[in-house]
Amino acid sequence: MKIRASQNRVRGRIKSTCTFMSLASLLAVPVGTALADSKDGTFPTAEQVGGQVYIDPVAVGQKMPTDFDTYDMDGQKIDLGTVVQGKRSMVVFFISAVPVSVNELAAIEDFTQKHGNGVNLVFVNADTVGSALMGGPKAVIPNSVKTMHYIKKEKGLKTNKIYVAPNDALSAESVSTRLGIRGLPTSFLLDDKGVVQKVFVGPQKWKKGDI
Description:
By secondary structure, this protein is α/β, with parallel strands linked by helices. The chain is built from 6 helices and 7 strands; from the N terminus they run H-H-E-E-H-E-H-E-H-E-H-E-E. The strands form 2 sheets. It has a 5-stranded mixed beta sheet with strand order 5-4-3-6-7. Strands 1-2 form a two-stranded antiparallel sheet. Strand 3 (89-94), helix 4 and strand 4 form a beta-alpha-beta unit. It is globular, with a radius of gyration of 18 Å. The N and C termini lie far apart (61 Å).
């Protein structure tokens, strides 16, 4: 019985890890890509799933929500609204589990330093590292923060405005759902009142005038 219980716990951890990776892969799908139903190769309609398949993303002219849990590089909860308040800002949502998303951070930082006209650059990791094998739920934020420090050092990032926003892609209140994120990274250019001026989805070929 002890052996079977141990095997079940291991299977549960593997299942949890696979689910996490599946969600990471889903968020990394290029814009415009439709995921077909496995049975007949067609994408489900809104009627079939009981509502709108995707909510409308936060668009130009709308104020970007900031009232979700966010943590700084010390693992302390902060108010993201105060980070962008009164400042023209570029808020970049990325996911630490996807290399192409992380690799874009250095390119964005380099571009904004050269052509950002003093824009307030903010990186937000809409992700947390797995916890089942790393100390349980209480270790999620500390371990995610450690990952952010590693990414900062590995990519040579200069900014200290790197945050973690725990995201459950299956929840209606999640960061990715509320913002309507279609791919990562997604960058929102905000005016000093927090209203979206531009939205950039996925890696970009940045050019002068984009910001």
